[in-house]
Amino acid sequence: MGIEKFIRPDLTGFGGYSPSTAPETLQGKIEVQVEKIIKLDANENPYGCSPRVSQALAAYPRFNIYPDDGQTGLRKLLAGYAGVDARHIVAGGGSNQLIDLILRLFLNQGDEVINCVPTFGIYSFSTGLCGGTLVGLPRDENFAVDVRAVKAAISKKTKMIFLANPNNPTGNLTPPEDILEMVDTGVPVFVDEAYYEFSGQTVAPLVGQYENLMVLRSLSKWAGLAGLRVGYGLFPPRIADYLLRIKIPYNVNVAALVAVEESLKDIDYLLGTVKKIVAERERLFRELEKIEWLKPFPSQANFILCSVLKGEGRELWQKLQNKGILVRYFDQPQLQNFIRISVGKPEHTDALIRVLKEIGG
Ligand SMILES: *Cc1c(COP(=O)(O)O)cnc(C)c1O
Prior knowledge:
- The chain is α/β, with parallel strands linked by helices.
- The protein has two domains: 20-48 and 268-360, Aspartate Aminotransferase, domain 1, CATH 3.90.1150; 51-265, Aspartate Aminotransferase, domain 2.
- 35% of the residues lie in helices and 17% in strands.
- The protein has helices at residues 51-59, 72-82, 95-106, 122-129, 147-153, 176-183, 196-199, 237-246, 254-264, 267-289, 313-322, 346-359; strands at 38-39, 89-92, 112-117, 133-138, 158-164, 189-192, 213-218, 231-234, 294-296, 303-308, 325-326, 328-332, 335-342.
- Helix 7 links the parallel strand 6 and strand 7 (213-218).
- Helix 1 (51-59) crosses helix 9 (254-264) and helix 2 runs parallel beside helix 9.
- The longest helix is centred in the C-terminal third of the chain and has 23 residues, at 267-289.
- It starts with 37 loop residues before the first strand and ends with a helix.
- Bound molecules: pyridoxal-5'-phosphate (PLP).
């Protein structure tokens, strides 16, 4: 107890988030050169961003000036893309920032957040950081959400239901009728559609009709902007107004703003790469199915979850890393001995499958 006595007691034991590995930190620790690493661990876009983005950023003359704090132009652009009115939009420095922001707006110490596990780790991370209590409800053996259990878990303290759709890391979708059943409870429902462009399913057109339905979107995956940190949410206008008031000033940086503008001028190109990734996802799935000691789960996103049926998932993850192929390894209650593989380019699939066959079970 030194400085600790000044720190929030609920945070002194806080575990934090386990992020993906930055390739440069593996320098000298693995068999291959860092430049040769095939990064399939964070669902990033292997085709990069639109070439227009790099050109516009290189030529941009005003990095010395703060962006518009009210996000006026950005909200209009994103609204046009999402097909809603700009009053619904709030942008963030990565969509993760909006998960944090919405919880700051709703949660008091001890309030409950319903989470359908296994799912994206940021929901529990941000709930913990805001002093909330996470109510984790297990999905079934195919990772479908148990809507009845969700409704039964609602208490006076419930402030939010999180639903990643498609879900990360499992890749499956929750049908719209199940989502609406949760929305009909009146509890705020936060539908995370970070992979919408890969799945094609959205509840965005319904946001205007409910007081308690929110949709999260990201440019990290389909537009290849993960490194620039920009995402947005579709909110009922009253919630959007509150969020704009409590957000950190100038939360979306100028480079990200320029990148969104250019990306939205190059949608055909970007959706072309999404199409390639979706086609490659199906090929990767078929290839993984042929490996008898792996069980891949069908995915509507840009990654595939696999159960490792023989041997240690951790060892497999380590061996792949040694060969310069990064994947995500899970060892949690409902994901014991699982790996998640992001969909790369065809040559990445080929390299992965080759190494998997070499390793054997
Ligand atoms: C990748 C991902 C995001 C995107 O986060 P950003 O902060 O926008 O990069 C959001 N939700 C889920 C479920 C994800 O997998």
